[in-house]
Write a structure and sequence with these properties.
Distance between the termini: 45 Å
Bound molecules: zinc ion
Structural class: alpha/beta
Strand content: 15-25%
Number of strands: 23
CATH superfamily of the largest domain: Ribonuclease Z/Hydroxyacylglutathione hydrolase-like
Shape: globular
Mean pLDDT: 90
Radius of gyration: 24 Å
Number of domains: 2
CATH architecture of the largest domain: 4-Layer Sandwich
Number of helices: 15
Length: 543
């Protein structure tokens, strides 16, 4: 049996793993590449495998970085079942059409530009038709039930506590009379997350565990439900004192509902005086639909506290909660003088309505922008959090005067200690742990932590393929046959170089405008250093 890393290798988005046995080929996740990940790997529109040959896709959860390229696989000939939980299948019925719509809109926009400049037209990555076909291929299964996927592969989904319906997947492969067991963590959630249940541990005696490491190098300081509430309350109180609007970029599915849950909670408890009077807008059609799905199919997935609230009809409801569906409703939010809280997406600010709200609020010193989720490299969200004083939105330069705050508590991803606990709680120590879904430097720190605790760890690069055998502790790393690899490897290298250059740029961005003599001197030295570094490498690379 072979395992190939077709995405999220030393990066966070684009989760996709190919499991091949003698008789079958199964994908775990088929996620979209976002932020700077779009420029690496295969670009946006190619796969490291032939979709026609795939027998089934096992989907850990509905987030687009795990599910977003399913319609592209279908467009390219994938005809098998998409096996996942009921709640994930429900969420996919809103998320994939939303993504299909974005693909069509983006191609249309690009084509208007291409028409004017005489360039050829482009096709959308996939269309609504491809999305419709994909949705017909979904085959939901309950948690904890063993399901045969092909003649030689069976699976069992367990709750990963990351998003409604999210799962870790235990897999058993029977090949040549031998049994090999694997477990894919999916995205691992956190204990005491509101609404959903806590993550479950793997119990299939997996020989190989493929796990995420998004926050493998750090712990979230804020873990308990109580601390999360206190943290959010403190940030809201400070924002209210500042006086202006509160803008919350948020993933439409999952995070938006967490924020609504805590807002209602804080309004009820009175910990943020005045909060009850401020209108709260969910400005995201997808966020609104997702809230409906959470309300309609949640019962089987809720934790106990949430079940009680849902029965009382109090889950996401409060008096000043308003939903803005249409583009006009969204625009009108930027005209009203009344102070408001706007929850909008995308969560990383790289697309969507949130960009309009940022454009209208970043320059205002009384506004507050509250980030509550992971901001991938190369996104506007990351830039703002790294302290940029000016940003470009819709081609316009916007000065950042608003307060930019990050709250830690709402992260849907386990931190370092929680990830380690999850792995150590597995029913058997695996022969090898493969780390993915994390930036290279983060995974290298996490890998060391796990090695220190006695695990054998691998941090695969994109397209690395491994031969896995139940009896062999040693893993034969396959030769990388793909021609593309060298090029891709080069672009990964370039990415690392750009990251260093970006670090310098963000140091400069974060620098306050000061005519302080010492700062001037430091900058002069830095300038000379950089100049000689650039000259030196110009010579080396040219020879
Ligand atoms: Zn996720
Ligand atoms: Zn993810």
């Amino acid at each position: 049996m072979k395992l190939k890393f077709c995405g999220a290798a030393q990066t966070v988005t684009g989760s996709c793993y190919l499991l091949s046995t003698e008789n079958s080929k199964v994908l775990v996740d088929c996620g979209m590449r976002q932020g700077s990940d779009k420029k690496t790997e295969f670009g946006e529109d190619k796969f490291a495998f032939e979709p026609k040959e795939i027998d089934a896709i096992l989907l850990t959860h509905a987030h687009i970085d795990h599910s977003g390229l399913i319609p592209l696989a279908v467009k390219k000939g994938f005809k098998g079942k998409i096996i996942t939980t009921e709640a994930t299948a429900q969420l996919a019925t809103i998320m994939l059409p939303d993504s299909g719509h974005i693909q069509e809109m983006e191609a249309e926009y690009q084509n208007r530009k291409n028409l004017r400049s005489g360039k050829p037209t482009v096709e959308p990555l996939y269309t609504m038709d491809d999305v419709k076909k994909s949705l017909e291929q979904f085959a939901p299964v309950p948690y904890k039930k063993i399901v045969n996927v092909t003649d030689d592969i069976s699976v069992r989904f367990v709750d990963a506590g990351h998003l409604l319906g999210s799962a870790s997947i235990e897999i058993t492969v029977n090949e040549d009379g031998k049994e090999v067991k694997l477990a894919f963590s999916g995205d691992i959630g956190r204990e005491e997350s509101p609404i959903i249940c806590d993550p479950e541990f793997i119990s299939n005696d997996a020989d190989y565990i493929i796990m995420e490491g998004t926050y493998g190098d750090r712990d979230h300081g804020v873990n308990s439900d109580e601390k999360k509430r206190t943290e959010f309350a403190a940030v809201l109180n400070a924002a209210l004192r500042r006086g202006g609007n509160i803008i919350i970029p948020s993933f439409a599915v999952g995070r938006t509902q967490t924020i609504l849950f805590y807002l209602r909670n804080l309004i009820d408890s009175g910990e943020v005086p005045g909060l009850e009077k401020i209108p709260v807008y969910v400005d995201s059609p997808l966020g609104i639909e997702a809230t409906n799905v959470f309300e309609s199919c949640g019962m089987g997935y809720y934790d106990e506290e949430t079940k009680a609230l849902a029965k009382a009809g109090k889950l996401f409801n409060f008096e000043n909660l308003k939903f803005s569906r249409t583009a006009d409703e969204s625009k009108s939010l930027n005209i009203t003088k009344e102070r408001q809280i706007i929850i909008s997406s995308s969560g990383m600010c790289d697309a969507g309505r949130i960009r309009h709200h940022l454009k209208h609020n970043l320059y205002r010193a009384d506004s507050t922008v509250i980030f509550s989720g992971y901001q991938a490299e190369g996104t506007l969200g990351r830039l703002l959090l790294s302290g940029a004083r000016k940003v470009k939105i819709f081609g316009e330069e916007i000065r950042v005067n608003a307060a930019i705050v990050q709250i830690e508590g709402f992260s849907g991803h386990a931190g370092k200690a929680e990830l380690t606990e999850w792995l150590e709680s597995a029913s058997k120590k695996p022969k090898r742990v493969f780390l993915s879904h994390g930036e290279a430097d983060v995974l290298s720190v996490f890998s060391q932590t796990l090695k220190d605790r006695g695990f054998a760890v691998e941090v695969p690069a994109l397209l690395d393929e491994f031969e896995l055998d139940a009896n062999e502790v040693q893993i034969a790393q396959m030769e990388k046959v793909e021609k593309a690899y060298k090029l891709e490897n080069f672009s990964l290298q370039k990415k690392k170089l750009f990251k260093q250059a970006e670090r310098i740029a963000s140091l400069l961005e974060a620098l306050n405008e000061s005519d302080d003599e010492l700062t001037g001197l430091k900058l002069k030295i830095m300038e000379e250093d950089l100049k000689s570094l650039a000259d030196k490498w110009k010579n080396i690379l040219n020879t």
